[in-house]
Each structure stands twice: as C-alpha cells, then as structure tokens.
Amino acid sequence: MNAGLLVADLVVSGTPPNRARRPALVTEESTVSYGRLTEDARRWQRLLHDAGVRGGDRVAVLAPNGPDYLGLLYGASLGGVVVVLLNTRLDAASVRFQLEDSGSRLVVVDPAHRQLASDAGAFGLATVVLDEDHRRRFAALEPAPLAAPRPDPGSPYILLYTSGTTGRSKGCVLSQRAWVASATNLVTGLGLSERDVHVGAGPFFHVAGLGTAMSVLSVGGRVVFGASRSLEDSWELIARHGVTIGSFVGGNLLAAARHPLRATHGSSLRIVTGQAGKHTPEEHRELGTLLPHASFVGIYGSTEAGNFTTTTSRADELARPGTVGRPLIGFRTAVVDAQDRPVAAGEPGELVVRGASVMSQYWGMREATSRTLLGGWLHTGDVMRADEDGYLYLLDRLKDMVKSGGENVYSVEVERALRRHPAVRDCAVIGVPDQRWGEGVKAVLVLTGGAAGGADAEALDRWCLDRLAAYKRPRWYEFVEALPVNGAKVDKKRLRAAHDPERAIRLPERTG
Length: 512
Description:
- With 512 residues, the chain is α/β, with parallel strands linked by helices.
- The chain is 30% helix and 27% strand.
- The strands form six sheets. A nine-stranded mixed beta sheet has the order 11-12-13-14-15-20-19-17-16.
- Strand 3, helix 3 (67-79) and strand 4 (82-85) form a beta-alpha-beta unit.
- Helix 7 packs across helix 8.
- The model has no long low-confidence stretch (mean pLDDT 92).
C-alpha cells in the first residue's frame, strides 16, 4: 500500500482538535471550520461514489470560487477522482470540447452558469447543480468512512486546460503527488503559516489562484471570499478580514498601492505578490514607500510546472532589474539551445525545468507530451538567460520572439524599455508583417493620458534608440485604451490577429 500523501491529507487528515475548530473558509454568509471542511470533503467523496464515479473517472466543475469548490476538490482527492476545472469565461463550444475531450462523467454546475452549461451540453451528462435543494440533500449525506480505500498519490488529480493560444487547448494533468509538491513550494516561497489570511479571488480554474488558496489551507491559514469588483472592494476585504497576503487579480498591484485606501486599510499585509521581472526599479521603490510594511514576492511559473517555479524579492529586482529570480527548492533548471545543450551564463536559450510538481502529461496527446517532457525535462517555451549566480531573466516566449531583418528581437526587453517611459502605463511588443524587414517590431501601448495623450510615436522612438540597439526599436506603434488579456497574461495572439497596417503607425526608416 502506498503511504504517500494525498492532497486531502494536507487539510482533512490528522487534523488536531484546535485546528478543527479554526475557521478555514469565510464568506459573506458563513464560516466553514476545518472540521466542517473535513466532513464536507467526505460527503463529496460519498456523493461521487453513490453517483457511480470511481477512481480515475473525470468530474468537471463549472462554478465560481467558494467553499463548495474546495469541498469537491478534497472529496475527489480522497476518492481518486480527476477534477476538470472549467473556465467560466469560455464560450459554450470551448466548454463542450473540454467536456468531450476529458470524457467527463459528471458535471458540477453553479446556478449562475446554468445557461453556459446548457449551451455546452453539460446536462446531457450526470449533473449536480449547487442550488438550495442540493445543499439540503448534501447536509443529510453520511460522510464516507475513514477506512475507505486510498488512491495512489501518483494518480491524475487535476485536469486543467491551457488557453490554446497556439492551437487546440491542451489538458495539463497534475497528479496528487505533484499538487502536494506544488503546495510545499508555495509554502516555502511565500513563507506561509497558520497566521496567514488570503483572499480567494484568483480564479480557481487557473493554477495560481487555486494553488495559492489550497497552500494557505495546507498550513492552517484562512481563505476569505467576497466581492472584489474594484480596488475599493479589495481594500475593504483586506481591512475587514486582516488579510496578510495581497494578491491583486489582473496585475493591479501598482494601482492598488497608489489607491488612497491602502494607507488606512493595508496595515495587515505582510507580503504583496506580483509578476516577477515586470516592475521597473522606480516602481519597486515606489511600492516600498507606499507599502513599507509589506514585502514584495515576484512570481514566475506555469500550469505545466504545477504553479510557481521561481520567486523574487524587492531587493533581487532592484539589484538585478528584470530578473524572475532563482528556482524554488523543488526545482532544478537549465537554459539550453535547440539541441538541448546547456548554454553559457548570459547566453539566451529555452528554460527547461525538472521537479516533482511538473505535469505528467497532456491529456490524450502523446506526441505533444513527448515533445514537452523530452529527456525528462519540462520544456517551458520561455527564452531565458541565467547569470553566474543562477538568477534567471525572461527574454521572450519562443512563439513571440520577433525575427526582424535576420536578427532575434526579444519582446520582453523592448517592453521593459518602453515601460520606463513616464507616459507608458502598459505595453506589449509583437511581430507583424513588414515589407522592409520581413517581420517588424510593433509596440501596442496604453498611455497614462489615454490612447490620444502622454506621448507620440516619434518621442517613443527617440526613447528606445537611447536604450536599445537600433534593430530592436519598434517600427510600428499603436495606441489603445487597454490590452487584451487571456487569464493574467496579455493575449498576443489577439494583438497579432488585430494588426491593421492602415490603423497602426509605421515609422519612416532612419538614414543615420
């Protein structure tokens, strides 16, 4: 018998009496203790078993973040059931594809998403609707016995589909063992303890949102749920619940720190998280001034890696601008060339990763799995360089790198230069067809004064020429009100598809 840990063991097994009485999940209507969460997990284990779901079967969930979601996940862990995390923002055709591709036998649906579930054909399968009738029947269920057979910790547990920005959506399979390893990495990387309070606002259909919440629970902390439609809402939640981990969904960390409520509502924060390598040194100094009591933790990771891979501190990013940090304790990394040979320090190459939290496969895609896990390393598709001390620097995605006039241009380097201009709020750099260069560098920018104010293409061109090699400068510019996003990332596929030479600005070639 395998004595390894299940995901549920981190929360519902061997819970001491004091922890059983502690609040685990807090909503505007109720508080769920660790003892109650344990009972709910075993009720879900019973419900799934009674519905004919067995170990290895897939159950899909189409619901917002909340206690029901987590109770289901812990119950599925106990029963060895694979949970398919459906993105509630998808169109019906995409949800239908994921239900069919995964072979889901049962779908758990929140009433708020009943129409999407119906349009996707979910009600042609066995369904559980999280309505009041379900809650009454659920409360009367006898929890599954403690002596129920345990699944293999190496068995599939989470099936999470990628965004599909380079083709059909791929289902990343993360085992229970991988999810436990990921929690260990997050506890280490964020220094989590039972005193921590986290707002469960990051969508649970993304590995970062769900992984952070479950890692906080694994050490006896508290996850709170509430409306976060605005920065005012977020700061009110932080003050009301004494939140210690500030994770502002959508990359709004700087805007949140500049909000006037941070002075009166942010005293409980001990850390704030953000995208590693994104902020300029000036922004880091500003964050340190506005939130002096909160340490910064920058994050880099991926679904395929099982969540966070590296972290940074404010000191790291001030000393090494642009770094995404060094690997967490559970990983080993290398930067390799196209033949998988390690490159020298400072040279660009693809980051490959090895660790216990890495996915086991792409669901039903043997060739894609083999390519991605070639040689026992996860090939991330990220172009990086490493310095002599092992700090990593993200240069680009392999698929986003611009080949202009025979030269490689890394979009992240250009974006970093543009973000330092005082008129630039945000930007994305892509490659577009160009008659002179084959592929031209294009900057799509959000300006502090709106799309029509703050700077013009000629001024930004002079700025870039002072900071970049001439061949790296954007030849094309477009000013927009907001960048399209896919989850927490800018959707560069949409930007490339939307490129219109008639609408964009093409700078004249320079002769000197």
